[in-house]
Write a structure and sequence with these properties.
Helix content: over 70%
Shape: globular
Order of helices and strands: HHHHHH
Radius of gyration: 17 Å
Number of helices: 6
Strand content: under 5%
Oligomer: single chain
Number of strands: 0
Distance between the termini: 36 Å
Length: about 140
């Protein structure tokens, strides 16, 4: 079932790039990012509240909070730079470079989380890097 969610994530990520490129025409990229963040906030909290999942808040540990905050900061910075790149570059070039995050995540999961690097994952990461280079040249 995870792969269905992952495919939906990929679909909506691709639509994000297309809609963002159209939406940032003549708009400061930081302002556009802030507007996007508000919409995401409303949608995410709407889902949490509709499903009654806010009851899990007291169970969050200090470590949960620290790393969720750090993750939020990383996400925000990613969006700021992504929107700036979209504003000045072509979607067909920006999106593949942005997806280098997949290969970087594989490497960081080994270095930071101690996950095993399989041959399949290593080859996949190298192919993503090679594909990105081909697409941006």
């Amino acid at each position: 079932m995870w792969w269905i969610y992952a495919l939906l994530s990929a679909l909506f990520a691709s639509l994000t790039a297309i809609f963002a490129k159209i939406g940032i025409t003549g708009v400061n990229s930081n302002l556009a990012t802030a507007i996007r963040a508000i919409i995401i906030l409303l949608v995410a909290w709407g889902i949490v509240l509709a499903r009654g999942e806010e009851k899990g808040l007291p169970a969050l540990s200090k470590q949960n909070w620290i790393f969720l905050v750090i993750s939020g900061i990383a996400t925000g910075l990613s969006w700021v730079f992504y929107f700036k790149a979209l504003q000045v570059g072509k979607v067909s070039q920006v999106a593949p470079v942005d997806k280098l995050s997949v290969a970087l995540t594989i490497v960081l999961s080994v270095v930071i989380l101690g996950e095993a690097l399989t041959l399949k994952a290593a080859i996949g990461a190298l192919l993503i890097i090679a594909g990105t280079i081909v697409l941006i040249l």
